[in-house]
Amino acid sequence: MNRFYGQQQTNIPQPMEMTMQQQNTPQMTLNRQNILYGKQVDSLEVVKAIDIPLDGSVSYFPLANGSAIVTKQLQQDGTSKITIYEPKTQKNDIKFATIEDIDKRLEKLDFSEIDDLKDDLEDLKKELKDIKNKLKTKKED
């Protein structure tokens, strides 16, 4: 037993030798574990009745029928917030046309305006041809 009378014993921290790897490695201690709180439930009413942690962490409650996942979280004002996540449903409204469908649609189209345009184009071609011929005859004269 070492006792010093009349002197105070002081514990002076001694420097420790560290390797370069030890000096450059940040040391962190995580106190919080990654835990999901909750359980599978039968309905939304069950979620409303279940107690949740008071620390504000989110609790997850998948519905047994697989239709949604419900979360419940305590808010700062003391109320609980319930959020429902439902899967997005895809619409199968894609329709494929058959040859018969296309033929029916084509029969309903009114091509009279297109026929009128064709006639107008033919008239224009004739007029241009006439102008070209007149210019040719003028050059020959």
Textual characterization of the structure:
- The protein is rod-shaped.
- The longest helix is centred in the last third of the chain and has 29 residues, at 112-140.
- Among the domains are: 35-85; 99-140.
- It has a four-stranded mixed β-sheet with strand order 1-2-3-4.
- It has helices at 20-24, 44-49, 99-108, 112-140; strands at residues 37-38, 59-62, 69-74, 80-85.
- By secondary structure, it is of the alpha+beta class.
- Strand 1, helix 2 and strand 2 form a beta-alpha-beta unit.
Number of strands: 4
Which percent range describes the beta-strand content? 5-15%
Question: What structural category characterises the helix and strand content?
Answer: alpha+beta
Shape: rod-shaped
Describe the biggest sheet? 4 strands, mixed
Strands of the largest sheet, in order across it?
A: 1-2-3-4
The portion of residues assigned to helices is 25-40%
Count of helix runs? 4
Low-confidence stretches: 1-25
Q: Which whole number gives the mean pLDDT?
A: 78
